[in-house]
Amino acid sequence: MMKDIKVGILGAGGMAKVHAKNLMKLPGVQVVSMCARSEEDAKINIAAVQDLEAKAFGDFYQMLREISIDVLYVCLPPFAHSGQVEAAAAKGIHIFLEKPIALEPKRAKSMLEAIESAGVISQVGYHMRFGSAVKELKRMITQGEAGKPTLFDGRYDCNHLHSQWWRDVNKSGGQIIEQVIHVYDLSMHFFGKPESVFGFLSNTCHKDVSDYTVEDTSVASVRFLSGALANISASNCAIPMEWNNTFTVICEKVTAYFKDANNAKFVMTNQNPPVIIEVKSQMDTYFEETKAFIEAVKEGKPSICPIEEGCNSLYLVDAVVRSSKQAGTVLNNKN
To answer: What domain range is 20 assigned to?
Structure first.
């Protein structure tokens, strides 16, 4: 009989609690430790998860020394990565990483190399990949039913100041790195590797907020190696207390209008008249991603979304930021 998988969690935010609750639903899995900025914070986080019995730590490396774990869930903000993943991988621990996996590509590459060198299984928390509608379109593209991918049109909008570290570009990297990276990941999930990117970032609504140094408006155009294109835009100036993530994917034989990862309208344009198929689901994508990762660990197989995917998405949004800093092309209004 296979022994229970013992899990440690690094981080004390909302996602740490979400993952703890989902892990507790799975048979043969035990959450045995949780680490936060202090032992007291970790105890508060543990108490917030019903029936969770785990040891609290305020020192990650102490947790690694004192507790034997098979899997580590890393739920840190991007600026807080400072070698924890490399240390865990060196001990043969499989790793689940929340997005974005780092603040900048150099740190992400170090983590990738450590995981690949250790031969451990990794997964990045792009939960939208596990939505029912997303999985259906991915299947259609992979099996050729959708025809050639042509255009991805994605949008993310909200209106919230978030936490102090989120408003600091040196800690979060900005809205597209910390939030909208989900949308950029989906574009690559459907269309493959990007070839080139052009982007603009702007702070238009929060100039009077003294510690707000991230963008609140962004647009980017991406060209993929296949020739497919993407438009991705985002705003933190939209409707207060709403987080909207919608996207349209146009392929040669199908146009898919997504309300979210679970719900979409597929218009089969290769049929006359076009046939409309509705995909509707209330699937918990956070639970599904954890279930898939634990299954990969148990079976000793690669996960659906390994760390390489987290690196690729970070490289893409980093390229958008760098493109914006180059200021694009200045137009002469007299022309």
So the answer is: 5-127+287-304
Query: In whole angstroms, what is the distance from residue 230 CA to residue 196 CA?
Result: 11
* Residue 323 three-state SS: helix
Where on the phi/psi map is residue 278: left (φ > 0), alpha (ψ -120 to 50), or beta? beta
Q: Are residues 134 and 279 in the same domain?
A: yes
255 contacts 249 by C-beta, under 8 angstroms? yes
The C-alpha atoms of residue 118 and residue 90 are separated, in whole angstroms, by: 6
Contact, 130 vs 281, CB < 8 A?
no
The predicted-structure confidence for 247-286, as pLDDT tens digits, reads as follows: 999 999 999 999 999 999 999 999 999 999 999 999 999 9
For the entire predicted model, the pTM comes to 0.95
DSSP secondary structure string for all residues of 114-145: HHHHHT--EEE--GGGGSHHHHHHHHHHHTTT
Residues 276 and 293 in one domain: no
Total domains present in the chain: 2
User: What is the domain-level CATH number for residue 90?
Assistant: 3.40.50.720
Q: What is the pLDDT of residues 31-64, one digit of tens each?
A: 999 999 999 999 999 999 999 999 999 999 999 9
Cα–Cα distance, 73 to 191 (Å, whole number): 28
Q: Which amino acid is at 110?
A: S
